[in-house]
Amino acid sequence: MSGVRTTCPYCGVGCGVIATPTGERTAAIKGDADHPANRGKLCSKGTHLGETIGLEGRLLHPMIGAKRASWDEALDLIAARFSAAIAEHGPDSVAFYASGQMLSEDYYVANKLMKGFIGTGNIDTNSRLCMSSAVAAHVRAFGEDVVPCSYDDLDAADLIILVGSNTAWCHPVIWQRIEAARKARGTKLVVIDPRRTETAECADLHLAIAPDTDVALFTGLLAEAQRRWQLDGRYLAECVSVPAGFWKDLPKLDVARICDIAPEDLRAFYDLFVAHPRTVTLFSQGVNQSVRGTDKGNAVINLHLATGRIGKPGAGPFSITGQPNAMGGREVGGLASTLAAHMGFSDAERDRAQRFWRSPTICAGPGLKAVDLFNAMARGKIKAVWIMATNPAVSMPDARMARVALANCPFVVVSDCIAETDTSLYAQVKLPALGWGEKDGTVTNSERRVSRQRPFLAPPGETRADWWAVAEVGRRMGFANGFDFAGPASIFREFAAQTGFENEGSRALDLSDKAGLGDADYDAMAPFQWGGVSPFAERRYPTSDGRARLVPIAFSPRDDGGRDTRLRLNTGRYRDQWHTMTRTGLSPTLSQHRREPLVEIHPDTARSYGLNDGGLARVTTAQGNSIFRVAITSSMRRREVFVPIHWTDKTSGAGRTGLLPGDDRDPISGQPGFKNTPATIAPF
Ligand code: SF4
């Protein structure tokens, strides 16, 4: 077989990959030089994908309890148990928990079943934990969840501000692009991150702000922009709604004190911003994974709208997604807070979706967001749940509570590639899913670029596509007409048609020109970007009056830089691992980078807690505790510690970060604040 063009299954950069099988379960991997997202480049994780496609640990057959079952037995049982729960307790007694690892076609069918046919909004996704605050900020400012930038903007910017993003490790090919731009045109780089990460090491200016003080920093910068005549009066007058009193109510803050940074560094930041109108502010989990994530996002967007640094080359607020298809999930409606195809839950939108689907019912409103969903499960309110391609027993905040929830749910279905995960231990039914190299569908990356994931490996055992399993259950629940898809191409066509259905320009997401693609055209479909390079270049926003909105943001004591004297626990990724290591853990090369989970801590803080470099320490929060090896480093702020997210019960007896963060969450998006948990530490 010659090389197959597909897309990397890891981060939201969405790099094109050419995979050439070299044996039954081996393949040579190289970057796709024709893919606009990466132009042939790959990072270490993408490069070593060929080491991760063996069958070790794979789930190859449906299981009911501990017994192997046929697909018919498993699907009949799921349909019967979901139907029984709905009959006895109503549609909101069942739920679906999806994942940014799923393809858009899988997501689309699951969303259609839950919202249109079962009639509940209870489908949410692990993307809730990843970037739902950016979604909420986009909707508040633009009227729709539209990312206003493209990677091309990174090439054209004069100033790039990275906020809460260790781009060099977490989005390495974007990082390579930034570095190339800096070399070619002297682009300035500011990194805003409490840690001096590998990314921050390379910056022209690093602001190691106190955790969760970003709102103060960007509100202060907006006030400074106003003071120094940097506002774009014409853009504000023509394109932006400004609430009455917005400028008068802008708080006067002692930003350097609140953010705990040197006044001269703050001044240098302000000066760089004033001197470089072509500014991209790229933000990621350090912004989103916060109890103020939505406000942080809007503080960044306010700045760009008010200074007119948006909708033109090299300028804009740019949220980067973590997972390979978080964006595709947002598009089809995989979040409990979106109906479908970027529609909300107004009567008109619900009616439109129901007529498009020709469905027997439609959900009454938004469903439970991830943490609320698991809390409802713990209280016995959810009688049946289907979990697909994710491991909430590890990844949810307060993971111990998530396990209580799973144990309390009478019927748990898990679709996964892996035979035994921390979550599947709680499953009554396990369904064997296709893995990367076997799946067939599409993903959307951080810059709204839709790419094909194409298969190049034969499906092993009895593995089947996730969309097929969902459609089969739909049919067995009596929904004969909505789920007769012939394959991923027919699902994509239907989704594309839905984005254009009675749209008439009211929504930026419109793929309706793809609704008539034949199967062969779908198979050959080249990567394309919906909304174009700059969706707001025409200076119109998808709101009722065509204007974006400045969002007033209240200053809260929580922005006031950690008056709490406990340590602050921050979490994040290692360069060469992905999520809970079910795939990257199979690569001997990737495992070389970091062999064990470390707790990173400043030398002064380590000394005051009696910790030695290389020794062991127990990190304790209100939720739980875990043991880590100590790494003493001046890259940490004092009284803060950092641990990686990857290790689990399955991989290790120690370093189980999932046990530590609490479930405090943003009141608008419902996204948990993983980056700033009160903690203590002691030698072990
Ligand atoms: Fe894959 Fe992301 Fe690396 Fe690209 S940057 S190869 S998408 S992990």
TrEMBL record:
<keyword id="KW-0534">Nitrate assimilation</keyword>
<keyword id="KW-0479">Metal-binding</keyword>
<keyword id="KW-0004">4Fe-4S</keyword>
<protein>
    <submittedName>
        <fullName>Molybdopterin-dependent oxidoreductase</fullName>
    </submittedName>
</protein>
<feature type="domain" description="4Fe-4S Mo/W bis-MGD-type">
    <location>
        <begin position="1"/>
        <end position="57"/>
    </location>
</feature>
<keyword id="KW-0408">Iron</keyword>
<keyword id="KW-0411">Iron-sulfur</keyword>
<keyword id="KW-0560">Oxidoreductase</keyword>
<comment type="similarity">
    <text>Belongs to the prokaryotic molybdopterin-containing oxidoreductase family. NasA/NapA/NarB subfamily.</text>
</comment>
<keyword id="KW-0500">Molybdenum</keyword>
